[in-house]
Amino acid sequence: MSEDKSRTVRVWCDGCYDMVHFGHANSLRQAKALGDYLIVGIHNDNEITKHKGPPVFTEEERYKMVRGIKWVDEVVEGVPYVTSLETLDKYHCDFCVHGDDITMTADGVDTYHLVKAAGRYKEVQRTAGVSTTDLVGRMLLMTRQHFRQGPLEYDVGHEGSSQLGLDSDARSPYTGCSQFLPTTQEIIQFSDGKPPKPNDRIIYVAGAFDLFHVGHLDFLEKARAEGDYLILGLHTDPIVNRYKGSNYPIMNLHERVLSVLACKYVSEVVIGAPYAVSQNLMEHFKVDMVCHGQTPIQPDADGSDPYTEPKRQGKFKLLNSENTMTTEKIVNRIINHSHSKASSSNTLSYQSHS
C-alpha cells in the first residue's frame, strides 16, 4: 500500500540544539505527537555565530545528538535561522512547532514571524525546571556541599518546593544548584514500555551517563549492535559521586533517566542500578552480554571488580566507540567557552533556539 502524503501529517522543528538535553527531547516528543513524521532542521555553526555567538558544540556533534533522539524521523542540516514557508513547503511539512518562548535574530526579529503569520505554527510547553542556561549554571557554580547518603539518597520531596525544583528549597547536594523533579507520568511518556521478545539477545550496560553526550551515544549504538534489546543501568547520585568525585553528577538520577530514555538505542532503564553486576541481576533480566566502554573500570567500595560475575560467566565485552568525549571534557569546554565569551564582553546567553 503506497503512502498517502495527504494523510501523513509532517511536522517541522528547527533550532541550534546546542548541548542537547532532555528538555529538547521532550519538546520534540510533543511535536511528534502533533503529527506522524517529525523533521528537525539544525542551524550550522556560522549561522548560530552570526545571531547569538559561537555554539559550544560543533554542527557535526549537534546533528548526531538530534539523530539519536527516538522521536526524530529525519534531520536536515544547515537550515536558515529564520523559518520560512519555503522551507516548510520544500520538506512537505504541514506546520512548524516550537516551545513557548520567543527567539530572535541578531536584528531583533522573531525567527518564527513568517510561519506564525501564515497560520502554520504550533506551540508546545517547554520542560519546566531544565534549560541549557540552567545546566551551564550548575557547571559554573559548582560548590561542594554535604552529600546525601543512606536513607537520604532518594529524598527528593523537598518541603515547600513548588516550581519543579526551581525554587531555593530544591537544591542538588552535589552542585548546590536547582534540581529537576520529574513525575512518573513524564517517565512513562519517555518510555517505550516494550518488553524483550522471547528470543531477543539482551545486552546490559551501566554507568552515570551524566550530561548525556555524543560519546555516550556512540557507545550505546555499539552496545545495541551486540544484541536486540539494550538495558541500561543508571547508578545513584551517591555512587556516581564516589567514583567520579568532585561535584559530580551534574544531573540528578531522575534527569539522567529521562536523558537516556530519549535515546533511540535504549530499550529499558534500571533506575538506581547496583554498582556490582550480580548474578541475581543477570538472571532477573536474562542478560546475554554485559558491555563496558573505554573508561577505566573503578573498583567497588570494597575494592572488588564490579564486573567479576559477568566475566566469570564469559559474558563481558569491552567496546570501543572510538569517541573520546567525556562528561569532564564537556564541563571544561563549557567553562572555557563562558570565560572566552565573558572576556570578549559578549552577553552570556546559552538559551537554545529550539
UniProtKB/TrEMBL annotation:
<keyword id="KW-1208">Phospholipid metabolism</keyword>
<dbReference type="InterPro" id="IPR041723">
    <property type="entry name" value="CCT"/>
</dbReference>
<protein>
    <recommendedName>
        <fullName>ethanolamine-phosphate cytidylyltransferase</fullName>
        <ecNumber>2.7.7.14</ecNumber>
    </recommendedName>
</protein>
<feature type="domain" description="Cytidyltransferase-like">
    <location>
        <begin position="205"/>
        <end position="299"/>
    </location>
</feature>
<keyword id="KW-0444">Lipid biosynthesis</keyword>
<comment type="pathway">
    <text>Phospholipid metabolism; phosphatidylethanolamine biosynthesis; phosphatidylethanolamine from ethanolamine: step 2/3.</text>
</comment>
<dbReference type="InterPro" id="IPR014729">
    <property type="entry name" value="Rossmann-like_a/b/a_fold"/>
</dbReference>
<keyword id="KW-0443">Lipid metabolism</keyword>
<dbReference type="Pfam" id="PF01467">
    <property type="entry name" value="CTP_transf_like"/>
</dbReference>
<feature type="domain" description="Cytidyltransferase-like">
    <location>
        <begin position="12"/>
        <end position="136"/>
    </location>
</feature>
<dbReference type="InterPro" id="IPR044608">
    <property type="entry name" value="Ect1/PCYT2"/>
</dbReference>
<dbReference type="GO" id="GO:0004306">
    <property type="term" value="F:ethanolamine-phosphate cytidylyltransferase activity"/>
</dbReference>
<comment type="similarity">
    <text>Belongs to the cytidylyltransferase family.</text>
</comment>
<comment type="pathway">
    <text>Lipid metabolism.</text>
</comment>
<dbReference type="GO" id="GO:0006646">
    <property type="term" value="P:phosphatidylethanolamine biosynthetic process"/>
</dbReference>
<dbReference type="GO" id="GO:0005737">
    <property type="term" value="C:cytoplasm"/>
</dbReference>
<dbReference type="InterPro" id="IPR004821">
    <property type="entry name" value="Cyt_trans-like"/>
</dbReference>
<keyword id="KW-0808">Transferase</keyword>
<keyword id="KW-0594">Phospholipid biosynthesis</keyword>
<keyword id="KW-0548">Nucleotidyltransferase</keyword>
